[in-house]
Amino acid sequence: MSMKNIKQYEDGYLNKMPIFQYILLSLLFSLWAAAASLNDILITQFKSVFNLSDFASSFIQSAFYGGYFLIAIPAAMVIKKTSYKVAILIGLTFYSVGCFLFYPSSHMATYSMFLFAIFVLAIGLSFLETSANTYSSMIGPKEKATLRLNISQTFHPIGAITGVLLGKYLIFQDGESLQSQMSKMSNVEAKKFGESVLQHTLEPYKYLIMILLIMLVLFAITKFPKCKPKKAEGGLQGKVSMLETLKYLSHNSNFKKGIVAQFFYVGMQTTVWSFTIRLALTLDKSINERSASTFMIYSFIAFFIGKFVANLLINKFNETKVLFIYSIIGCCLLGYVSITPNITSVYGAILVSLLFGPCWPTIYAKTLDSVEEKKYTEPAGAIIVMSIIGGAVIPAIQGLVSDSLGSMQLSFIVPMICFVIVAIYFYMEMKTFKFNREMNKDEKNIFAKETI
Questions:
Q1: pLDDT one-digit tens code per residue, 72-89
Q2: pLDDT interval class at 232 (50, 70, 90)
Q3: What SS3 class is residue 234?
Q4: Rounded to an integer, what distance in angstroms lies between the CA atom of residue 209 and that of residue 344?
Q5: Angle 42-45-46 (CA atoms, 0-180°, nearest 5)?
Q6: How many beta carbons lie within 10 A of that of residue 206, not counting itself?
Q7: How far apart are CA 69 and CA 89, in angstroms?
Q8: What is the distance between the alpha carbons of residues 401 and 394, in angstroms, rounded to a whole number?
Q9: Do 104 and 124 form a contact (C-beta atoms < 8 A)?
Q10: Number of H helices, E strands in the chain
Q11: What's the mean pLDDT in 32-49?
Q12: Nearest 10 degrees: CA dihedral of 307, 215, 79, 134?
């Protein structure tokens, strides 16, 4: 917990990384991952219980990522006026309240009440992600910023697997699939059965509340570095308005490209994970929800392995080249998922998760690094987090496509198109890197000739 020998530079980065604080910060990534993966369970559960279309079931992600979108800027303003630590404490509090709201939701048994609970929970997660992503990249030497964020992100699949396991064994039950069971009941029987099933929904959130309270205490008693750029002469740096920030960022083409790439990446990842269980149930009528959720565990294991392998590759090769290759392979796999009418397409979706790992932290770090004026760091980080709204939009589009075509499998063409856009982004970044490297070589040669 000691901050001894930790020195902060003018740009907010540190001379060395405080290990305990970094570990605590990284654990937050697993907490919001658990909440996100539970959404994938809820989509399948609520579709049957409330008799929803694929489009309507995607509202879970709309409520979740809508909360992120609306709160990111207010969260950034809190960080700017106070600290990353204060924003994290607020985030953990809202997260806890959102989990607690699952108690009345399960008894009221209305879809809208569950959506409200998910929205409140997402407010907390917006504070956490707006804080933790930027904070993780800055809580140490600048040259290791992207690596630190990638390592923190490896906690994401651990939390995601935990969330799915909680859903698999606490929400889903043994026996036939819910849809199969409810199709044999009268309307009155189905309603009563659905209400009893919803009682299982709050079980995983009981455990989350206990973990969140422990984390609240740990963050409250631990001293953290500020990691915020020091004020410029005259003290004007702390008084930058949001309007001025938006004006500055609107002229930053690299920042805008990063926002677009992040929007489609988050939308693609969310929609693949949202509908993998549904895809398995569609292609194999003999399995139930509990069995189908095992595919999500495989997906998050693949996600974890993909992150680990990517960290090794990025340390040896240019990161944009690695991710461009990842994106091309991902496009091909999603094409396979959308046209192969057997269970192997589910394994194709699992393999796609192997390629998701390094995308978010790399796009985030590169986009944030494009903001040269560090007085805009906090609001810029918030705007990148706002691009998570792709997770609300793209699953809804895939749900509409699925309902319109009458095929969950063909609807996977939607995330494939998203991966194409992400591939274009990394291709442009790869070309920019190559151009800059050539320019630097030319400048060095000219300098060497002038010296001679």
A1: 888 888 988 899 999 999
A2: very low
A3: coil
A4: 37
A5: 80
A6: 14
A7: 19
A8: 10
A9: no
A10: 21, 0
A11: 89
A12: -10
Global pTM reads 0.80
What are residue 412's phi and psi, to 5 degrees? -70, 0
Cβ 347 vs Cβ 334: under 8 Å: no
Tell me the CA distances in angstroms from 278 to 285, 330, 399, one per residue in order. Answer: 11, 20, 11
Helices marked H in 141-293 — which ranges?
145-153, 155-166, 178-183, 187-198, 203-221, 242-250, 253-283, 289-292
Strand partners, 14: 8
* Phi, psi dihedral angles at 167 (to 5 degrees): -70, -40
Q: Hey, where are the domains in the chain?
A: 19-229+249-443
**Token pair for 116:** 């409200």
Which amino acid, one-letter code, is at 425?
Y
User: CA–CA distance from 83 to each of 28, 134, 226, 330 (Å)?
Assistant: 16, 12, 6, 38
pLDDT at 238 over 80: no
The string of DSSP letters for 86-139 reads: HHHHHHHHHHHHHHHTHHHHHHHT-HHHHHHHHHHHHHHHHHHHHHHHHHHHHS
Section 223-227 average pLDDT: 90
pLDDT digits (tens, 9 = 90+) for 170-186: 998 877 777 777 777 88
Contact 374, 12 (CB under 8 A): yes
- For residues 283 and 84, give the distance between their C-alpha atoms in angstroms, rounded to a whole number: 46
Nearest to 376 by CA among 253, 226, 225, 239: 239
318 and 433 Cβ atoms separated by less than 8 Å: yes
CB hemisphere CA count around 420 (13 angstroms): 9
State the Cα–Cα distance between residues 59 and 65, nearest whole angstrom.
10
| CATH of 19-229+249-443 among 1.10.3720.10, 3.30.365.10, 3.30.565.10, 1.20.1250.20 | 1.20.1250.20
Given pLDDT bands bounded at 50, 70 and 90, which one contains residue 229?
confident
